[in-house]
Amino acid sequence: MHCPFCRHDGSRVVDSRTAEDGASIRRRRECTRCGRRFTTLETASLSVRKRSGAVDPFSRAKVIGGVRRACQGRPVSDDDLALLAYKVEETVRGNGQAIVDSHEVGLAILGPLRELDEVAYLRFASVYSSFNSLEDFEAEITQLRAGHASRGA
Predict the structure, then answer these.
(1) Residue 71 gets which letter from DSSP?
(2) Residues with Cβ < 8 Å from 2, sequence gap 6 or more?
(3) pTM attached to this predicted model
C-alpha cells in the first residue's frame, strides 16, 4: 500500500475495524516515512464472468442499473434498489466462489425483486428469461398468484 502523501510503500496498521456489516475491513495506517495517517478499506474480491467469457469486478451499481429499468414508473425508491443490490451481493458471495457467472447474478436478483415489486419482477424476468410468448407471461403470473394463495392461506 503506497502512502497517498509521499508515495512510500511502507506503512503500519494502527487500527482495524469491520465495516459494512462485516463485508469489509477498515484499516487506519501510518506511513513509516512521513508519519501521516490514512485509511484503507479492504474487501474480498468478487468477479462476474459474462456470457462472452470476459470477467469484470462485481458492481452493485450495475445491479441497480439493470433493475432500475425494470422499476421505471413503479413506487421503488433508490434506497429500495440499494438494499436489493446488497442482498444480491450477499447471496452471490454466499456461494463461496471468487468468480460467478452472470447467470447466477441474474438468478440472485429475481427473488428480492419479486418481494420488492411484482410488476418490476415480471419486466425483469421477461427480459432475463427471454419470454417469447404470452404463454410465458401467463405461466409466470400463475406462479405469482399461487404464491399469493399460499401466503394468504
Answers:
(1) T
(2) 8, 9
(3) 0.70
Which value, to the nearest 10 degrees, does the dihedral of the CA atoms of residues 99, 103, 104, 106 take?
130
List Cβ<8 Å contacts ≥24 apart for 93-99. Answer: 93/23, 93/44, 93/46, 98/44, 98/45, 98/46, 98/47, 99/46, 99/47, 99/48, 99/49, 99/55
pLDDT at residue number 150: 75
Distance of CA 97 to the CA centre of its chain: 15
pLDDT digits (tens, 9 = 90+) for 6-64: 999 999 999 999 887 677 899 999 999 999 999 999 888 899 999 999 999 999 999 99
Residue (of 63, 60, 57) closest to 109 by Cα position: 63
Give the pLDDT score at 152.
64
- Residue in the structure block whose three cell numbers are 456461494: 95
Quick one: cell of 5? 502523501
Cell of 119: 410488476
List the grid coordinates of 92. 452471490
Measured CA to CA in angstroms, residue 36 lies from 1, 3, 29, 58, 77 at distances of: 14, 8, 8, 32, 40
The answer for 15, left when phi > 0, alpha when psi is -120 to 50, beta otherwise, is: beta
